[in-house]
Specification:
The chain is an all-alpha fold. The chain has three helices and no strands.
């Protein structure tokens, strides 16, 4: 989850505009990129940790769920 929460919160903190929908869109883009980036990491926590290097190439499930959360915010 942190793979998406950190970049999304950084995007929110860096946003200088006044358009709320663009703010959420920027957060959603950053969250999705964070989820995509999680494909290159070996899972070390949660249920996936027992799969070790087999998790490379698959996005972290928690990261994807948080990415969907931010995408939902951007659609409102």
């Amino acid at each position: 989850m942190m793979d998406t929460l950190i970049p999304a919160s950084q995007a929110i903190a860096a946003y200088n505009g006044s358009d709320e929908s663009e703010l959420f869109a920027a957060a959603a883009r950053a969250a999705l990129q964070g989820a995509e980036d999680s494909k290159q990491y070996v899972s070390k926590f949660g249920r996936a940790k027992s799969y070790g290097e087999k998790t490379i190439g698959t996005p972290d499930a928690g990261a994807m769920s948080m990415s969907y959360f931010f995408q939902g915010l951007a659609q409102r």
